[in-house]
Amino acid sequence: MRFITASISSRHKRARNEDYSGSCSNGDMGCWVVADGLGGHFGGDIASSLAVESILSAFQADRECSPATLFKYMELAHHAILARQVAEPELSDMRTTVVLLVADTFGAIWGHAGDSRLYHFRQGRIISQTKDHSVPQALVNAGDLKAEEIRFHEDRHRLLRALGQDGDFRPTILQERHPIKDGDAFLLCTDGFWEFVLEAEMEDTLAKGANPQGWLDLMEQKLLSRTNRDAGKEYDNYTTMAIFVQQSPP
Question: Which residues constitute the domain of residue 172?
């Protein structure tokens, strides 16, 4: 397999961009990461960049597609943020979400903390997606809220897990390698993106996008068509990364 990647990141209508993303792909194996520094905490941009760069560095040092290795990548990022909090007390409240994908010719494994999401597409349809670590998602899990109501819930921004957060470090990590096929696609994105692009629209634009960048451009148009209606409102940063899986030529 080979992987074709594209990404978009924008501060949108905020003073600075606290999202961060990055990838490292070498031949038939790659690592892709998207993080969203928590906007209410000073240093969110530092936390998100620390998370992504720590994970990519760990991947480059130990390339493996396994649940234990993904946990190690995320744990290293978590401790890097905690160490920076201690070294610079003014950053003691910084946190970040993270979503991480590692894939090779045999399959893919992903993990996340917070409400940055991963979607896996096959034959143009979503076959799997992460579940947010948030109060609204907990209500969905309990049967007290419908999944489609998460976007508009009053507590949508209340997160239950994040890197740099005190207490137990409990990311959610896929516990076995998920098979991938020629034609599959992955989408990693922060909540500033998926809030304004519905899942049905992700599928619809995927059918029209000739490549990952074309797909992202079509979805960004959807997002901006909604947020530009209210010029005076402040909207969150948005970041997204698309990966197309293709059979390697012989």
Answer: 2-11+18-228+237-246
